[in-house]
Design brief:
By secondary structure, this protein is of the alpha+beta class. It has a single domain, classed as Protein Transport Mog1p, Chain A. The protein is about 30% helix and about 30% strand. Strand 5 and strand 6 form a beta hairpin.
Length: about 210
């Protein structure tokens, strides 16, 4: 039997933004409503510009997530100011040639773990009731994105999980976490958010 969806135990203060229907309503209700209260360290006469900046940043994230085949984008909404962290759930039809052979999904997962991302090898882990591959790596600062958004874009710490959809006939799901936090991807703040994401992935379940 092929699953029809998935479930996650979402951390407090995070919101799910569906990307294939109901996106605008979710953004307005769950994300943008929270920016009506401007952080105390933002001058009152800059409140409107601050809200516009947050909207622009979130809408850009949504656009990028859709282009990546995203199903759902998860963002923090109950923080003093926007937390530079998010994770994306996306369906991918073909992971790579290494995982596109005729072998069983478990064998394909083991082979896929041999791929490297930013120099980091994959690690086979139990996810839900099956196996998946986990990578953790640092993505360098994107100077082009910084110039486009008129804000500094720091190096980010990434954690990717890729897992086959049970009885999915070659379909795969990717769950990818990214955080720039305080600009130090190797610092304790980034580590804490990485640990939170790994803990969240222990709650991943397929829904039938």
């Amino acid at each position: 039997m092929t699953p029809t969806s998935y479930s996650l135990a979402l951390p407090a203060g995070w919101a799910r933004v569906p990307l294939r229907g109901g996106t605008r309503a979710a953004l307005e209700e769950k994300v943008f409503r929270g920016i009506e209260r401007v952080p105390a360290d933002v001058p009152r006469d800059q409140g409107m510009a601050y809200r516009a900046w947050v909207r622009r940043r979130v809408e850009r994230m949504v656009g990028e997530a859709r282009r990546a085949g995203g199903l759902d984008l998860y963002v923090p909404v109950r923080t003093r100011r926007p937390l530079p962290a998010s994770f994306l759930v996306a369906e991918i039809a073909e992971v790579a040639e290494v995982a596109a052979g005729p072998e069983a999904p478990g064998e394909a997962v083991v082979r896929l773990a041999g791929e490297r991302r930013a120099g980091a090898a994959g690690e086979v882990r139990h996810v839900g009731d099956g196996l998946g591959v986990r990578w953790e790596y640092v993505r360098p600062r994107d100077a082009e994105a910084a110039a486009e958004d008129d804000v500094p874009v720091a190096a980010s710490r990434r954690v990717d999980y890729v897992l086959p959809v049970p009885a999915g006939h070659g379909r795969w799901l990717a769950v990818s976490h990214s955080t720039a936090v305080d600009g130090d991807p190797a610092g304790p703040y980034a580590q804490a958010l990485t640990d939170l994401f790994d803990a969240l992935m222990t709650t991943f379940r397929w829904a039938y």
